[in-house]
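[step 3/7] fold_predict: job queued, chain A
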Amino acid sequence: MTSIRRKLLFTLLLALLAAGFTTATATFFSAQAEFNEFLDTHLRETAESLGDSVRHSMPTKEPEHLTIIGDAPSYRVIVQVYDSAHNSLWQREGAPAMPLPEGPGFGLVKVEGKTWRTYSVAVGPLVITAGQDLEVRTSLAATAAFRILQPLCLLLPFIAIAVWIVVGSGLAPLEKTARSVARRSPTSLEPLSTKGLPAELASLVNAINDLLRRLADSLSAQQRFASDAAHELRTPLTALKLQVQLAQRAKTPEAQQKCFSRLNEGINRATRLVQQLLTIARLDPDASKKPMTTINLAELVKSVRDDMAPIAAQKHIEITEDARPAMLDGMEDAIRLMVTNLTDNAIRYTPEGGRIEITSSTEHGLSVLRVCDNGPGIAPEERSRVFDRFYRALGTKTSGTGLGLAIVKRIVDIHHGTVAIEDGLDGRGTIFKLSFPPLGASSPHTAMTPTSHS
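[step 4/7] structure written:
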């Protein structure tokens, strides 16, 4: 497992070493250039000062007895004097003999496998040459560069310890947060505290808290679904069991047929309840992040009207549609289920001979769907509660699960829309008005906040 502390330590130390070596290298070349300039000046002055001293009186002693003022042993400068009149060479004892220069001034010569920098000056018949091994200059420059690098090398252990302590101190909040998470039980989804955390870690903890919130919502939805399913299935299953018992006790075929008919109705109601419970469960909290497609609401309205017309005809209810152009980004199956649920709800509550109208349009930049009927309507004081799960308005005689409008509300929320309940056709009944962001505007960043209007 990769350690952030170790990685930061090694990276920083390597960066310091790289910076130190880069600085030392730059110092070496800079010092070498400066030493070259300085020592070239020294060579020239040595040769010229010696030339000036012998210009009026030729030397009568060997060169080893000559004294060069300002000469330093560490510079290792050698001097030789060539007398062209007598073809003789004077030089210090032990000093290598340098070839005669081609002319006055600076030059480079090879002597005993080494490169020497020379400066020559002519004084009458004498040719005075001062020379220096280039290794001296390289050595002086390297010494200067090492003096730059040496303190850094000595400080590296102390820097490593300081970095270890600072990184450890910086990672302490992360380790504390990790221990806090490790101590939690699997069902504990409360937000983590961000008090005292650095900004970099606080952003991570905030992201974790957001995930915990969504997990809590998902878990709550699952628990609510399990509770609702257990509660709502208990009654129809009990009724089915009683119908079976009555069928077993029936004395005549007519009584048995009546019990079987009621049993079939009970099975249909239980099946519808299970289907709607599963629909609610599939509309999970992250459903809005699933891929969306472009939906032509006008075509969808016509399709739902055609599908529901035969069912409405059994109660002699007329279904009409007014499909005007309107587009929407969304999940087509969910939108179709939403309109179907509202239409089915209207058919069940509208009395025989009633009228239902489904419309689509674009209003004030919004895509709008309406499902209208002339049934008994919904009292204004109950309109804010009809979208709650298993809620059924008082005085309702029509059978139902109380889940149809809850499914509608969930689908509207997923698509960032709004739903409103208004008075219906002919001055009575109900209008469900669904408004959605227009095509291309249903992303989470531009979505409208879903609300219900009473």
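[step 5/7] annotate
The helical segments are 4-54, 134-182, 199-249, 253-282, 297-313, 332-349, 404-414.
The mean pLDDT is 77.
exit 0
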